[in-house]
Design goal:
By secondary structure, the chain is an alpha+beta fold. 50% of the residues lie in helices and 10% in strands. Helix 2 packs across helix 3, helix 5 crosses helix 6 and helix 9 runs antiparallel to helix 10. The chain is globular.
């Protein structure tokens, strides 16, 4: 029970919590018997048992989290859940085999992400899903709702459209919801790395500040959760589906971090967004008194997380102030990260040099050198061993506004194109899937571009049901697979 209550958004157990702990233990026992991969520990099995039990609790209590998730997957990928057959029956708000099968794959794949790609048709996953389905479908009619959880999500804990209620839900959803099982572990890992950089005799207050600073960065901007949406984006989707949470629908986090004081009145501090140059009115009550006084001096650049809620911008978390001379370098790095001005300039140079073609295939080192050096006008170090064209397989040049110029040397023979004289269908069957699931092979935006251009048409996933089935399984779920393994989402980024 203690382990279970760590993930609850309330301190005292609800009458139903003991029931769902029992369900979690039964699910973990099934996983112990069916999921035998050595990479999966008993701790991981217990964690998956808790996650699946909380998913079941969500269904029974009608908190709407899974219904929101499946609606979003339908919108993004054309299926209620990935990997389900188009003709497979699905009953919204009930226990479905497809849900359990997908969630098992999702939890297991998270644990194995850096090691291998799990086939959703894996016999162990299928067996475990069938047994868990039999357990939960048998409990469906009599399982108790968790009224305390429903009240936490939908109740007016602090009044109409309350900011405090929203931020509590935001923190809970990000760190403890069953959709985001690794967010807390990811945060703790990043925190450990950050604390290690502090001197051994760092004061406790500084350590605590680092904890809080990273915590709010993770909650506000982290995309390590389900479908790589931020938690604020998920709460907005939940709010759009239910009028009781309508204030959540418009809530969002500003993408900028750096601001400069411009003016103030009794209600607002007016800040200049150093990313866009726009003026942002921020409720002054959301700042500490010390910060208000320092800002008013006009000599500091602020690093802030701003949350738009109830028609107002408010500061969330903690302020960080810095002298302009010392932090402008950080501002420029952030601008490059978010707006990509250098990459966009190189993209334009590439498109002009290629005559508007998105991909340029080269056969030799000289062709590579001529295109980059002469046609694009970029200084090219021909002696760099990392940029040597294998004249048995060639290379392909491409670009995007986010990445700029990209030279694809490895696996170029897997890219299906009439312009690629080195294309080899058998190599594509073996290796082209890497372009869809391995961020170390190619950047996300270019992976999407290759797929949209039909250059990964011969990619397939190994399947015990044969090549044709493996190809269909991969391509029916291609956008989801790429989004999952890259931690990105075209539905958000356009």
């Amino acid at each position: 029970m203690n382990e279970w209550m760590k993930e609850r958004p309330y301190p005292k157990a609800d009458a139903s919590d003991a029931y769902y702990v029992d369900i979690a233990n039964k699910v973990a026992a099934i996983l112990q018997e069916t999921v035998t991969d050595q990479l999966i520990t008993d701790v991981a099995r217990r964690s998956m048992g808790c996650c699946l039990s909380r998913w079941f609790e969500d269904i029974i209590s009608e908190t709407g989290i899974w219904m929101t998730a499946t609606a979003r997957m339908q919108e993004l990928y054309g299926l209620r859940v990935p990997f389900m057959a188009a003709a497979e029956e699905y009953y919204e708000g009930e226990v479905n085999r497809a849900d359990i099968r997908f969630l098992l794959w999702y939890y297991l794949q998270i644990l194995c992400r850096s090691v291998k790609v799990l086939n959703p048709d894996d016999g162990h996953i299928q067996q475990a899903a069938d047994r868990i389905y039999e357990l939960l479908s048998g409990e469906y009619e009599t399982a108790p709702a968790n009224d305390t959880l429903t009240t936490f999500v939908y109740g007016r804990l602090f009044g109409e459209d309350d900011f405090e209620h929203y931020t509590m839900a935001l923190r809970w959803f990000h760190m403890q919801c069953y959709l985001n099982p690794l967010n807390m572990a990811d945060y703790l890992n990043l925190l450990d790395q950050k604390v290690r950089q502090l001197p051994p005799d760092a004061p406790a207050g500084l350590v605590r500040y680092q904890e809080d600073e990273l915590f709010y960065d993770h909650v506000c901007f982290g995309r390590s959760g389900f479908l790589t949406h931020t938690s604020a984006e998920w709460l907005a989707l939940l709010g759009a589906r239910d009028p009781r949470l309508s204030a959540w629908a418009e809530a969002h986090i500003a993408r900028s971090l750096f601001y400069r004081y411009r003016k103030e009145d009794e209600r607002y501090l007016y800040l200049e967004d150093l990313l866009t140059g726009e003026e942002v009115p921020v409720l002054r009550r959301s700042f500490t008194k010390d910060c208000q006084e320092a800002v008013a001096a006009g000599e500091k650049i602020l690093r802030l997380r701003l949350l738009y809620f109830g028609g107002e911008w408010q500061q969330i978390g903690f302020e960080q102030m810095g002298d302009p001379e010392k932090v402008m370098g950080d501002v420029e790095q952030f601008r490059e990260l978010v707006l990509h001005p250098t990459a966009k300039a190189n993209y334009e140079r590439f498109m002009q040099a290629s005559g508007g073609r998105p991909f340029v295939f080269v056969k030799t080192q000289q062709e590579l050198k001529d295109f980059i050096g002469e046609r694009m006008g970029i200084v090219f170090d021909d002696s760099d061993q990392r940029l040597q064209v294998d004249e048995q397989t060639g290379a392909v040049l491409m670009a995007s506004p986010e990445v700029g110029l990209h030279i694809q040397l490895a696996l170029a023979e897997c890219l299906k194109s009439a312009d690629n004289t080195f294309y080899d269908a058998s190599s594509a069957k073996k290796n082209a899937m890497s372009f869809m699931v391995n961020p170390e092979v190619i950047p996300y935006s270019l992976s999407c571009a290759l797929y949209d251009a039909g250059m990964l048409d011969d990619a397939l996933m190994n399947s015990r049901k044969g090549e044709q089935y493996g190809a269909r399984l991969l391509h029916d779920n291609a956008r989801f697979m790429t989004d999952f393994f890259y931690g990105r989402c075209r539905g958000i980024e356009g």
